[in-house]
Amino acid sequence: MNIKSKIEGNVHYVGVNDRHKDLFEGMWPLPYGVSYNSYLIDDDMIALIDTVDVCYFEIYLRKIRAIIGDRKINYLIINHMEPDHSGSIRLIKQYYPDIVIVGNKQTFGMIEGFYGVTGEQYMVKDGDFLALGKHILKFYMTPMVHWPETMMTFEKNHGILFAGDGFGCFGALDGGFLDSRINTDRYWDEMVRYYSNIVGKYGGPVQRALQKLADLPISVICSTHGPVWTENIPRVIDIYDRLSRYEAEEGVVIAYGTMYGNTELMAEKIAEELSARDIRNIVMYNVNRTNHSYILADVFRYRGLIVGAPTYSGSLYPAVEDLFTKLLLREIKGRYLGLFGSFCWAGTAVKKMGEIASKGNFELVGDPIEMKQSMKDITYTQCAHLAGAMADRLKKDRR
Known about the structure:
By secondary structure, this protein is of the alpha/beta class. The protein is about 35% helix and about 25% strand. Helix 5 packs across helix 9 and helix 6 (about 205-215) packs antiparallel against helix 7.
């Protein structure tokens, strides 16, 4: 028996690390890589829970066979069909042709659609059970966390929650997979970034899932990305709870586009004035120099957002428009928004930002600023007033 892979009981970790991919979903940077987690329950009936990216199938199969040898796998439980977790289904089916695939009514159409896999299926509904021997599984439907077919599987005898992408985070696992055996420091910011980038739109479904799971005696969380959580479960659940309620700290994100530095000077003045007004958490981003992944994470973290952009070809600076598209997609609530911009001969950026922002859930703070060509005395005053309005609005929440 491979004890290094054991979590609790006869539950084993058989996930893999991806240290080659630069961008998750083709958009989000992976400076620390990412893990694709799968789990094996070695009981009277053997169950595999989720799979891994197909690129890592050979490593994956070797890990499985190190635990069960040539014995067959009875069940493949699919909590989530995103290809980084379902990508090995077709190959698993080839190596274990009698395996029964367990999923819900949304799962099986996706399996056939992605992989052309049919065969014996076991469809489960909310609250259904599956007994493997000493391990008894109960299924919870958690749709839109963050795909429609997502569900979670709870192992009753050891309190293990197989959570799909729920409670996941970016970052490969260096050596161990249990949080009790690794330094978890880097995963906390990566969890916020993962949530804001991947799950952020679905705060309501996350809240419904948390309520459904609230009374379970969870002692282990097995997500499909990141560490297996044992010691830090309250902190992990709290992060997902706060982010899905769009709860935020006092602070301001200043995100701006600039071509020749004039719009950046406005951002610098606003930041200076915010600091003078006793706002300590201030983060500044040039939208062309920082991947929007990190900006989104801080927008989820802080209540204040001030966005600036120059007019570009009679319209809004493209990188700022793209940032607004990502913000609106996530339906972020409870954020205070200030706007500023610049132009040379025909101002459009500030107007465009106002039109876009009106489609979201932002509370507009202060008067938008539109600067012609370069900073002047009036511009410095306007920037100070915008910063002051944001500081005053944030301080109201202190009471």
